[in-house]
Amino acid sequence: MQLSVINSPVYLLIAVLVAMIIGLIWYLAKQHKVKPVINASSPTLKTTEIVFSELQVRTGFSSEVVLHVAASLAQGSSHPLSQAIVHEAQKRQLPIKPVSEFQTYQGYGLTGLVDGRIIALGNLPLMQELGINIPAAYNQLHQTQAMDVRLIYISVNSYLAGVIFLTSLPQ
C-alpha cells in the first residue's frame, strides 16, 4: 500500500506531461506550423517537403514527354509525391492533359490513359504487379535508394519509360 502512495505523484506527473505534449502538437498542427509524420521505427514530429530531384529516362523517350504524362496522371491525386511531380511539370511549363480511366492503387501508385497511352506511375511493386519489365539497372536503383529519396517508376504502354527521384527535405 505504501508503494502506490509514493508512485501516485509520479504517475500524475507523467500524465500531465503527456497531455501537455499532445496539446502542443495539436496546437502547432492547427496553426499549420508542422505536419505530424510517423516513422515506423521511431515516432517523431517533423516537417518535410517533397521536391523533384531528378528524372532518368530510357532510350526512345524524352524527359519532356515522360514528365508530361507523369504529371498529367499525377494531377488526379492529392498525395504529396504526386503534387511534387505536377509542380515540376508546371515549373517547366509542360502541358498537363486530361486523364481517362484514372485508377488509384493505395500505397502503390496510379494508372490511366493520357493522350491514348496507358500510363502507370508508382513504386516497383506496382510495376511488377502490372507485368512491366524492369531492367536490372533500374531494379538495382530500388535496392540502393537512400532513406530520403523516393523512386517513382513511369511506364508508357506497358514499357518502362523512366524513373523520377523525389527527395524529402526537412523544413
Automatic annotation (TrEMBL):
Kindly indicate whether the keyword Transmembrane helix belongs to this entry.
yes
The UniProt GO MF terms for this protein read: nucleotide binding; transmembrane transporter activity
> Keywords assigned by UniProt?
Membrane, Transmembrane, Transmembrane helix
Where does the record locate the signal sequence feature?
Answer: none
Example of a GO cellular component annotation carried by this entry: membrane
**SUPFAM superfamilies in alphabetical order:** Metal cation-transporting ATPase, ATP-binding domain N
Q: Does the keyword Transmembrane helix apply?
A: yes
What are the transmembrane regions?
6-29, 151-169
InterPro entries from the UniProt entry: ATPase_P-typ_cyto_dom_N, Cation_Transport_ATPase_IB
The family assignment reads: Belongs to the cation transport ATPase (P-type) (TC 3.A.3) family. Type IB subfamily.
Q: This chain belongs to which protein, by name?
A: Uncharacterized protein
Q: Which organism is it from?
A: Agitococcus lubricus
